[in-house]
Amino acid sequence: MKKKPRREHPMHSQGGSQDGAAATKIQRAVLVLSLGSRPFFKVTRPLIENFAARVSATLHVLSSVEHPALQPHMRRLKSTPRFLKLPALHYYLQRYNQVLFFDDDVVVSPRMADIFEAVEPALIGAVFERHKPQGWHSMHWRTACAIYNVSSCKPKSSLLFNSGVMLLSRQHLPLLARWQERQLECRVLCDQLFFNAVAAQRGIAVSDLGASFNFVGSEVRRAVVTSSEGRPIQDKAARRAALRAACVVHLTRKVPKLYLAHWIARRALTQQDVMQCFQNSSAAAIEGSKELLLRLLPIEEKYDIGVELCKGEPPGCKAQPWVQVA
Hints:
The chain has twelve helices and ten strands. With about 325 residues, the protein is an alpha/beta fold. α2 crosses α10.
């Protein structure tokens, strides 16, 4: 990585697997929680596996609630399964020095280099959601402060970091200490409120990895299709450049996850005009692109990414010309 991400406090002002003794010998883990029917994970998983292998990290995919990290807590979390990330991280932070957590709906660039060394162990590596207006952040910070009794709450000037991509170290075990005794409540957001609030309570600062490490699905849509009037969305060139520079795309709600994951992964490997991870790229990483392509064979369903992204949109929405280049 060319430069270390900015250090910021969470209350930032806007101006397959091994466990037990064998695992303790390995310093790093990549952790993914993928429960239930997640058809897009057959696309995102090979890219995550590729990254973990390249940075010498052990990949753990939790696909069953019977896993020892989750099973003891299912009675407590049965009604709030969106908080299963808490016991999962608590379990693996006791076994590894560093744990990089990915939501299962993230597409990792095949060029992304090692980010484990880019963040100091005392800091949480995450991405502040700067694409959201301050009003959105203020609303959710008020909620987080109320649920978790954050005394030094500054909702008008604080930003939330996204919990779908987080790099934690063993030093962050206090973040999850006695989580079972806390009130866990979803109010639009779930574990994201918990991590932001408790990090603020514990005085744990956040190293902002930058938007390219959590480029959200709504921004991908704006880079790929035109507006409902048929005109390119504002700042078309800037959005396309941001998509090209992205290291991690997060397929958030309101996008066709399976099709978009497949299209963007293959595009990154063939046309190489998306997800080239300019901020943190590894020339050696692309050497495995042919092998990855074989694992990303065409999915059974035929699709047109422009049509899929425009579903539900007014007439005039269509793919931008650059997307049509095969």
